[in-house]
Amino acid sequence: MADPAPKTTVFETMSSLARTLGAINLGQGFPEMEEPGELIAAAQRALAQRSNQYPPMRGLPELRGAICAYYARTQGLDLTLDNVVVTSGGTEALAASLLALVRPGDEVVLVQPLYDAYLPLVEWAGGVAKFVSLTPPYWAFPLDALKAVIGPKTKGLVLNTPNNPVGTMLSGKVLEAIGELAREHDLWVLCDEVWEGMVFDGTPHVSPLAVPALAERAIKVGSAGKIFSMTGWKVGWAVAAPALAARIAGRHQFLTFTTATPLQWAVAEAFALPAMWHREHLARYAAAKARLTDGLTAAGFAVLPASGTWFVTIDLAASGLPADDVQVAERLVREAGVASIPVSAFYAQDAERGYLRLCFTKEPAAIDSALARLAAFRAAI
Q: What secondary structure, in 3-state letters, does 142-199 show?
């Protein structure tokens, strides 16, 4: 019998409810803010003046070079074109990487809460997922649990920093400890770093590629959609040591083969924007985060600290609400007209159910309207 069709993601489910009910969508993570005119102009120029035919399978050399230069400036990474494979979004980079690395029966450690694509991708590659969980409410990384779960069949580990949904980041010290475990047990490390350009509190972003023990065994996944807030463009990349990158490219060529040529040119041009542009772009999102966070706090919600991403997390029990995130999310969208995402949806087992994720990438009027609805909902509980 054929496998059943995959379930619709919680993001699509909540967005569909928001559309049907006319709710404000603070669930799915996409901006509803003014889009960067510089990128739109770059894409228009590329459509009219550049090629609209197949680019090289691994990505335009100009874009791969721009990615290398960006990481040299921002993270001190020493990369060449041979380190980079351009993909159709970060999720395709994850898929190509896991298909390149996982063989049937391999165990892969996943860290909960987790982006919902990780588990099905591991399973489609024939792998067996093992789980460790961050410790709420501050979501500390469980090094002891990681050590305990590694066994003779363990081949790799999937990390996410900044973490979606909770916005915490892995420190250099934690990554060095992970590196020692990876070296001891000969593990690869796949790190989803798509939110690296959306860090608001000054916490330094550290990639596993910057850790000597991981430099030859780690894969870094990035996304122009997150750095430049153009999620529909689906331009991403995998960065790894040349031998690993070649294996990833071998899978990429039979997934999407390549990524829209004009958008690759546009992203390459965007990477040449000055540092001031990036600071101003980030500041717009920081202001939206502050607006939502301050409003929630004023209304009596307990908002947990988060360094990065486009999301804030509410501790439901500390906010005086039922500690059942699925029930509260369902009531919020239907009774208050605000869509959110239950953090338990980011777990495959032993889910934490006391937390709710809200997206702040909306215009001020939408945030203010959502805050008024959320405050009224809480007051009525």
A: CHHHHHHHCCCCEEEEEEECCCCCCCCCCCHHHHHHHHHHHHHHCCEEEEECCCCCCE
- The residues near 91 (Cβ < 8 Å, ≥ 6 apart) are 117, 236
Nearest partner of 186 among 267, 273, 106, judged by Cα = 106
C-alpha 68: how far from its chain's center? 20
| Domain residue spans of the chain | 10-29+276-380, 37-270
| CATH code at 10-29+276-380 | 3.90.1150.10
Grouping H, G, I as helix, E, B as strand and the rest as coil, residue 108 is strand
pLDDT given at position 2: 53
- Same CATH topology for 10-29+276-380 and 37-270: the answer is no
Distance, in Å, from the CA atom of 171 to the CA atom of 138, rounded to the nearest integer, reads 14
SS3 321: coil
Q: If residue 130 lies in a helix (H) or strand (E), which one and from where to where?
A: strand 128-133
Token pair of 3 as six digits? 């496998």
Report the b/e string of 276-299 with b at 16+ CB within 10 A: eebeebbeebbebbebbbebbeeb
- Give CA–CA dist 297/301, Å, rounded: 5
Tens-place pLDDT, residues 85-124: 999 999 999 999 999 999 999 999 999 999 999 999 999 9
Q: Given this model, what pLDDT does residue 1 score?
A: 46
Looking at residues 216-232, what average pLDDT do you find? 97
pLDDT value at position 168?
A: 97
Domain 37-270's class? alpha beta
Neighbours of 43 (CB within 10 A): 21
Strand order in the sheet with 107-112: 84-87, 236-240, 218-223, 188-192, 154-160, 107-112, 128-133
- Distance (Å, rounded) from C-alpha 114 to C-alpha 102? 18
Q: Residue 237 forms beta bridges with which residues? A: 86, 222
pLDDT band at 17 (very low <50, low <70, confident <90, very high): confident
Is 121 strand, coil or helix?
helix
**4-13, 208-217, 251-260, 323-332: the lowest-pLDDT one:** 4-13
* Predicted TM-score (pTM) above 0.85: yes
d(CA 90, CA 194): 7
